[in-house]
Design goal:
Blueprint (H helix, E strand, L loop, with lengths): L5 H6 L2 E11 L2 E4 L6 E8 L2 E5 L2 E6 L3 E5 L5 E4 L6 E10 L6 H5 L4 E4 L7 H11 L6 H22 L7 H6 L3 H10 L7 H8 L3 H12 L3 H18 L4 H4 L8 H12 L3 H8 L2
Amino acid sequence: MADRLEALLERFSVSARMFHAGTLCGINDLAAEDGTGQLHFIRRGVVEVSHGGDIAVRVDTPSLLLYPRPLAHRFITDSASGADLTCAHVRFDGGAANPIAATLPAFVCMPLAQVDGLEGVLTLLFDEAFQQRCGRRAVLDRLFEIAVVQILRHLMENGEARIGLLAGLAHPRLRNALVAMHEQPAQDWSLEALAASAGMSRSVFANTFRETLGCTPGQYLQQWRVSLVQQGLRQGRPLKSIVGDVGYGSEAALSRAFKAQCGVSPREWKQAAQH
């Protein structure tokens, strides 16, 4: 079976930086930082989590909270006993344009015991977090990054993503067409070719794709290509060097598709992204 996350993570990496390990007591506000989400592991204690004043969830068992995109939140814990947490800033390359981050809900809350394959990572992570060893932060950052991949695996393999990219990657047939587009964005993909890669008829593929991902195969392919163009522009590559990578015959054709998707030209988008 094709690796459903490999091409995505190769092109749009995930990085993490630990910023807290220890006990939180009382009320703690965590601000939304531009382009950055957060991942919290609650090891012990009861935590009420609020967004904008409303209690979103009450956590009373060891759990994780993943915020793939910036979202201010407040932790309310007992002022005496508090709760033990290990926290990291998480950055999905490309920010809001990252195809993985864009498909995730505003926040994910799950008991730690529910996530397959996470136990070993957490044992190492908590051991490092609550000790003072040389190289501690570097180890913790890598462990948080591994944990993000484990969480994505869990969401896919357990069908917890109902619609969007992760739901498509979880589908036993659609995943093949998605991986094909991710790995070969320059290919001149027709609906028939994509349906064949999924082992489905043209009509069934088109309908299933739209119902699962919320868009047509053609729309998704354009979104994927444009996200690659944006990544190239952020890296300082000239537009003419990106054209061939994403399957457009000319800069003019690429610019038309880009503007149709983003509402601005590649040049205008790059200028705005630099400010």
